[in-house]
Amino acid sequence: MLLEHRGKRPKVHELAYVAPTATICGDVTIGENSRVLFGAVVTAEGGAVEIGAECIVMENAVIRGTPKHPVRMGDHVLVGPRAYLTGCAVEDNVFLATGSTVFNGAFIGEGSEIRVNGVVHLRTVLPEDSLVPIGWVAVGDPAEILPPHEHERIWTIQEPLDFPGTVFGVERGPAGTMIPEMTRRYAKGLEKHWADLPREG
Length: 201
Hints:
Layout (H helix, E strand, L loop, with lengths): L1 E3 L6 E2 L4 E2 L4 E3 L2 E3 L4 E2 L4 E4 L4 E3 L4 E2 L4 E4 L5 E3 L4 E2 L4 E3 L2 E2 L4 E2 L4 E2 L4 E2 L4 E2 L4 E2 L4 E2 L4 E2 L4 E3 L4 E3 L4 H8 L4 H6 L6 H16 L6 E3 L2
Parallel strand pairs: 1-4, 2-5, 3-6, 4-7, 5-8, 6-9, 7-10, 8-11, 9-12, 10-13, 11-14, 12-15, 13-16, 14-17, 15-18, 16-19, 17-20, 18-21, 19-22
Antiparallel strand pairs: 1-24, 22-23
């Protein structure tokens, strides 16, 4: 399904394929010979999404551009099933395996691999040919790649990257005080979908 959002229509190359149950919404560009498979969602939530040539976005993956952090994906990128990318830059020839997650402001260098359930955290920079092992977390600039059980080390690097401020514009505080303001702001931004219009081709 192709949707116009905030006056912007998806641009899908004539040689690209979008499955009938995929959703492409707003200021999204999909390059030549790319494929977006069943159940995938590619949505420009106020920030563009550019997908290069010969990319594969597999079933139930989500790619989301935001006003502060658009998505730019190079050529020959494979996005695995259930992967989640928001507001990031991905260079050419990158493999993002099943369940991988890439957060706002992250950069993944050419030829890198994020293996099953790997995470590239907020504002993290991975140089070319990096590898994030199965279930591990890349965090920081320059990135440290850590196993998930090293939570204290991950948090030491992650906390100053300021997830609530970067993503939602909310000052960090106790979770119970942040969440209501985060959901109010997010709901306000998402209400713009009321005016979405379906588009053919």
